[in-house]
Amino acid sequence: MRILIDECLPRKLKREFPDHDVATVQEMGWSGVKNGALLRAMVGQFDVFVTVDGNLEYQQNLSEAEIAVIVLKALNNKLETFLPLTDCLTVKLQAGEISI
Fold first, then answer.
1. How many CA atoms lie within 13 A of 7 on its CB side?
2. What average pLDDT does range 76-86 have in this prediction?
3. CB burial class (10 A; 0-12, 13-18, 19+) of residue 76?
4. Which of 1, 26, 74, 94 has its CA 20 to 30 A from that of 46?
5. In 3-state terms, what secondary structure has residue 59?
6. Above 90 in pLDDT, residue 7?
7. Is the per-residue pLDDT at 10 higher than 70?
8. Are the C-beta atoms of 52 and 6 separated by less than 8 Å?
9. Among 48, 57, 46, 51, which Cα is nearest to 94's?
C-alpha cells in the first residue's frame, strides 16, 4: 500500500510501515496544504492517509475520497505514543482489512 503520513504526525512514524511505500506530507512538498486540496493531491498517488485530524470527516466529504483515511487518536504527539496504534494498523493493513 502507498501510505501518506500527515504533517501533524512525527515523521519517524514512516519507519513503522516497512512493508509499504510511505511518504510524509513534508516529503511530498505539501506542507500547509489545506485538507480538501491535500485529499485531491493524494488521488492516484496514495491508498491510505494517516492523520490525527479528527475533524477531517466533518470538514470534507470522505465518501467521495478515493483513499482510506485513518485517524489516530492519542494523548500526545510523541512517537512512542503512536507505536501501539501503528502496530494495530500494520496488522490490519497486512490482513487486507483496510480498503479504499
1. 12
2. 88
3. exposed
4. 74
5. helix
6. yes
7. yes
8. yes
9. 48
Q: How far apart are the first and last CA of the chain?
A: 11
Digit-coded pLDDT (tens) for 22-75: 999 999 999 999 888 888 888 889 999 898 887 676 677 666 667 888 888 888
Closest to 8 (Cα-Cα) out of 66, 65, 72: 72
Q: What are the two backbone dihedrals, phi and then psi, of residue 24, each rounded to the nearest 5 degrees?
A: -105, 160
Q: Which amino acid type is present at position 8?
A: C
Pull the grid cell for residue 8: 501533524
Question: Rounded CA gap, 71 and 55, in Å?
Answer: 9
**Phi/psi at 68 (nearest 5 deg)?**
-85, 135
- CA torsion 52-57-43-28 (nearest 10°) is -30
| Side-chain half-sphere exposure of 36, counting CA atoms within 13 A | 4
